[in-house]
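Deviations from the work plan: none for this task. Representative record:
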Amino acid sequence: MKSRRGVLPFVAFAVFLALWEWAVAAFHVRPFVLPRPSQVAAALVAEAGQLMPAAIVTAEEIVLGFLLAVAVAVPLAVVLVSSKWVEDALFPIIVSAQLVPKVALAPLLTVWLGLGMTTKLTVAFLLSFFPILIDTMIGLKSVETGKLLLARSMGAGAGAMFFKIRLPSALPNLFGGMKVASTLAVVGAIVGEFIGANAGLGNVLLIANSNYDMVMVFAGITYLTAVGMILFAVLDAIERWTIPWHVSHRQLLEPTIHAKS
Amino acid sequence: MESRVGAGVGVRVDRVSQVFPGEAGDLLALDEVSLNVAPGEFLSLLGPSGCGKSTLLLAIAGLQPHSRGRIAIGGRTVERPYTNLGIVFQEPFLLEWRSVLANVMLQAELRGLDAQRYTARAEALLDRVGLAQFKGRLPHELSGGMRQRASICRALLHDPPLLLMDEPFGALDALTRDDLNLELQDIWLRSPKTVVFVTHSIAEAVLLSDRVAIMSPRPGRIAELMTIALPRPRGLDTRETEEFGTYARRIREIFTEMGVLRAEPVR
């Protein structure tokens, strides 16, 4: 059962690629419209000399923007939930700021911060910041009152209350927010590169696109997807290591549509 | 009874009122409740839902400030959370990320008690309630009854002179509830302490208590204090005795007079 669930998605994906390969040949689709998967696969290896350094640049932007978002959003969430007064004063401002489409800020940031890495990681930061903030706040607030009352009756001080009760309770939400944010950080970095860059996968994609080199476009997208998947997998591994109690619990609750199979 | 005198700590509730301000007017939850719990006594607060019995318990623990009146434990007025006690709620409120043993040990950790000494005591307590082999498990791997047993061990770890219990067995199935009633009596008989036990089960209150404080529907008042003079240890068969039936009937009559229960069968 478990191994079947692991293998089936790969089988399905292989079937999809085979159909794609066959359809491109059967309907004589021209390569600058849609290349064959085998061509893309060959380019992944052949063009690695160009794609790999570009992927490393983009990955750096993504990871730095993401880490910056975690480093700012988590302490800010702690401050916001620590006092009703602070939350009432600041939270509406933060929500309003969130309504500004951050992608639209990218050209402006390019003017302010230049064509270098700072602009890209700033866009990545802006996109991934909010989900982490909100989910951490929800997590910190979701602690059951009974647990807090019990801790108080045991004489817990503010520090123990936070580190032994509130923070661990918030971790499942924090990881949920970070996983969403990790995918948004990828979007942020690539948008930043589209606006203006002389390195990174966004740069490779733009050049290949203007040359109608669709094989290279697909190869670039594949590298970019791999970067996103690796970041997500790392977060998932950290989550499993940090909060195994939640991961195992969640697996029990996971919805199974075909319950009988 | 005599052997328990002096164990535990006395609780004095003196004309305590609780008002909850609300948009549709203030809600009077407790109306001048006075109550004296003797050291070592097992006292139940028995009443219908919403009669303020849980509110009174939180007020005694100093976890919720009351509007008027005075509460004193061991002669000292309660003004902030009172910590020399153990609390069991209807929900076990175990920390999901801690093993059963680590959950019980939270009590020692937060109080800064000696880890080694209290680990031994925690293990002994878990052994006594039949959880010895589950001490390494996480709460979600346990049944509801086992989780509540663990939360009782947590409340008892530091051997407090006062135990407050808010419908501790209300969410459990009837058989588990019966079993835990006897277990609680056994724990209390072996290690005397004052217990204030909130319940809405007449049978549970009569089976466990030295005295039952029968509360009226909102606003909560103590309608009657009844001494239960049944010999201990009481077993489940105690419930079939004539004396037990007399107590239960008398309480039912009081609830009928207050309009909580119907006098006639519903047709």
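The helical segments of chain B are 53-60, 100-111, 115-128, 144-156, 174-190, 202-208, 242-257.
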